[in-house]
Write a structure and sequence with these properties.
The structure is a homodimer. Helices cover 28% and strands 26% of the residues of chain A. Chain A is of the alpha+beta class. Chain A has a domain of 165 residues: CofE-like (60s Ribosomal Protein L30, Chain: A, 2-Layer Sandwich), CATH 3.30.1330.100. β1 of chain A pairs antiparallel with β1 of chain B, so a sheet runs across the interface. Chains A, B: InterPro entries: F420-0_g-glutamyl_ligase, F420-0_gamma-glut_ligase-dom.
């Protein structure tokens, strides 16, 4: 059985705050108010990237939003103009392909925007170490962010940082209930845990952290490779460039080649 | 608080089976064994598309797998050759963009493959009506399937059918905790519920149905538009064609035009 709940009491996070301490305090207070929530072995904490960014001071002036997106952009994947402006789907430093490079103007002070955390895997490891030291339990930590995806409306949460969590469940080579080998089957567990956590965190409620219990089989003694292994760009990426962009490039190359 | 659990006791599903009856029987038995699981208002049942396909008899011979994929293909998005064969990412009848059009060779009898259900939204509505009639509770029903996605390793579950569930949480126009308007924010609730359910269903365990409790605010009195509204293809789709395919088409068009 899976259970998940949002952790109340974290409050506004400011640059320089000790996020592990804030998180630990909130968990401790929650455990008093709701004893069933006391942190246990096998729990996974899912921390919204926003509060990590705020604690890290990854804040820039809103007037610089477009410049911030450009600075965070490693590679432009696709752009689309529309009445509201220009949508840029780009690959950022973390290998994530997202609109606006993940730069975020919600839930931050007027006049500011947030960049994604510097190194969410490292943050996950640090949070994990601090919580383990404080509470003496073996937990996993994910850092989550919201992203759109091709061919589907709406956004879902994904894991952009991870420590102590088996992020991919590689079922290749195992058999199904008929004894037949499973084909392409690599469940992105960390993304599914992040999605489940979003159902109890939520953008309008302001709860930035959730605990997901029942995934103890995905919690590992070591920190592991982190969420970076969930990135799939490079030669394996069939959608490295948007359709319109690739078409235009093909046209141009042919024209230049006098084809 | 969110809770989710797999429903045991459904067993092998055969063409012509009354899935609603099988599901109802399993839920009733589970309620006796685990009284806390008795179905309640606001619960969401997540049914793996596989068992819907089996009950519908959407089974073809394995030797015809490639022909089945072709038949289910409305539009080819991208293809990639590799040592194991050819991967085809295509749009199928349901508007879903998936590898192999969603044709599935796991968890089905040797020598057979499964096609996706005929109309998963209709199935969700029928299951919902049957469960409401049998148990007298207001539940939502999702039909789930597993899909890969660009730029991320591994697969997650998504909702391909829905009834009585608000599939998208449209937060545009609402404000965040700072009173600022939320920007692009449309949470794909149904996909996140499907992902959460997959954590307690799972490909190797064989449990084809899960109950997700705690999303009562997303369960609606009416059936609603279903999961079809989660499809985003057409003019709004910046990735309607894979990069290599679009490039080749641009080249060809330029060459044909004598550019």
């Amino acid at each position: 059985m899976l259970t998940a709940w949002g952790v109340p009491g974290i409050g506004e996070v400011r640059p320089g705050d000790d996020l592990a301490a804030l998180l630990g305090d909130a968990l401790a207070a929650d455990a008093l108010a709701r004893p069933a929530t006391v942190l246990a072995d096998g729990d996974v904490l899912v921390v919204t990237s926003k509060v990590v960014s705020k604690a890290e001071g990854r804040v820039v002036h809103a007037a610089d939003r477009e410049a911030a997106i450009t600075a965070e952009t490693v590679r432009v994947v696709a752009t689309r103009e529309h009445p509201g402006g220009v949508t840029r789907i780009v690959e950022n430093r973390l290998g994530l392909v997202m609109a606006a490079a993940g730069v975020d103007a919600s839930n931050t002070d007027e006049g500011t925007v947030l960049l994604l955390p510097e190194d969410p895997d490292a943050t996950a490891r640090a949070l994990r170490a601090a919580l383990t030291a404080r509470f003496g339990v073996r937990v996993g930590v994910l850092v989550s962010d919201t992203a759109g995806r091709p061919w589907r409306q709406g956004q879902t949460d994904i894991a952009i940082g991870a420590a102590g969590v088996r992020v991919l469940d590689d079922l290749r080579g195992t058999t199904d209930t008929h004894g037949r080998p499973l084909q392409v089957s690599m469940a992105a567990l960390a993304d599914e845990i992040a999605a489940a956590a979003e159902l109890v965190k939520g953008k309008a409620t302001g709860l930035p952290v959730a605990v997901v219990r029942g995934m103890g089989h995905a919690v590992t003694p070591e920190d592991g490779a982190g969420a970076r292994v969930l990135v799939r760009t490079g030669p394996d990426d069939m959608f490295a460039e948007g359709t319109a962009e690739a078409y235009a490039r093909g046209w141009k190359d042919a024209a230049d080649a006098g084809a």
